């Protein structure tokens, strides 16, 4: 017998004999979280339109909902973010939303939102202060629109991330950002 199986056998015998309290035996497994999240390099596809150097190491947050884009990705010409502050539309005009929290200790974070909805605009709420690099909006037909924030710092507010009045099926939204306050929350919404 190897040492781990001996320990398991001894625990089983102690439980059977009543030497170990049942609530201790039923204790949940403890999950250890790293103080510093794993970092990796930013990955962009061929044809990515921003040519400046991107951050070398980022924390990657995958989308909570896995979305498949059924067409090859083709980048459209990048759009420079206009930082247009807007008011939140009526609730009945909002068809999708998701939030993500990042901290200053994480530095650059690559956040992904699985949208898979049709609408006419994407809105971005910043709660806190954040330095934004780019957003990548991928549509169902494989087109990807990059919004260039030019690494500027933005304060709390509602902004139009991308307006497409013709109505488009958005698959994913990717955001590369870092918090300039202790914590920043991003909320992405789709308007119909």
Notes on the structure:
This protein is mostly beta strands and 192 residues long. It folds into 2 domains: 31 residues, no CATH class; 159 residues, Jelly Rolls, CATH 2.60.120. It has 2 helices and 10 strands; from the N terminus they run ααββββββββββ. Strands 1, 2, 3, 4, 5, 6, 7, 8, 9 and 10 form a 10-stranded mixed β-sheet that branches. A hairpin with a 3-residue loop joins β6 and β7. The radius of gyration is 23 Å and the shape is globular.
Question: Which helices and strands occur, and which strands form pairs?
Answer:
Blueprint: H1 3-17, H2 22-25, E1 59-61, E2 74-75, E3 79-80, E4 94-103, E5 108-127, E6 130-139, E7 143-148, E8 153-154, E9 157-179, E10 183-191
Parallel strand pairs: 1-5, 2-7, 3-7
Antiparallel strand pairs: 4-10, 5-9, 5-10, 6-7, 6-8, 6-9
Q: Which structural class fits the helix and strand makeup?
A: mainly beta
Order of helices and strands: HHEEEEEEEEEE
Number of helices: 2
CATH topology category name of the largest domain = Jelly Rolls
Main β sheet profile? 10 strands, mixed
| Helix percent band | under 10%
- Total number of beta strands: 10
Taking Cα atoms only, what radius of gyration do you get, to the nearest Å? 23 Å
The level 1 CATH classification of the largest domain is: Mainly Beta
Proportion of residues in β-strands: over 45%
- Low-confidence residue ranges: 23-27
The geometry reads as globular
Span between N and C termini? Answer: 65 Å
Determine the mean pLDDT. 86
Number of domains: 2
């Amino acid at each position: 017998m190897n040492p781990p199986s001996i320990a398991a056998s001894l625990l089983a015998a102690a439980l059977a004999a009543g030497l170990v309290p049942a609530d201790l035996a039923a204790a949940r497994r403890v999950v250890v979280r790293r103080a510093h999240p794993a970092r990796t390099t930013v990955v962009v596809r061929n044809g990515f339109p921003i040519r400046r150097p991107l951050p070398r190491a980022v924390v990657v947050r995958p989308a909570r909902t896995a979305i498949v884009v059924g067409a090859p990705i083709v980048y459209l010409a990048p759009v420079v973010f206009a930082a247009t502050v807007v008011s939140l539309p009526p609730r009945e005009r909002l068809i999708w939303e998701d939030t993500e929290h990042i901290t200053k200790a994480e530095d650059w974070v690559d956040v992904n939102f699985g949208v898979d909805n049709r609408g006419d605009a994407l809105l971005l709420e910043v709660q806190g202060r954040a330095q934004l690099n780019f957003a990548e909006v991928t549509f169902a037909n494989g087109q990807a629109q990059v919004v260039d924030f030019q690494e500027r710092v933005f304060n709390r507010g509602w902004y139009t991330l991308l307006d497409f009045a013709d109505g488009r099926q958005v698959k994913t939204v990717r955001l590369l950002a870092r918090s300039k306050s202790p914590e920043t929350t991003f909320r992405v919404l789709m308007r119909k």
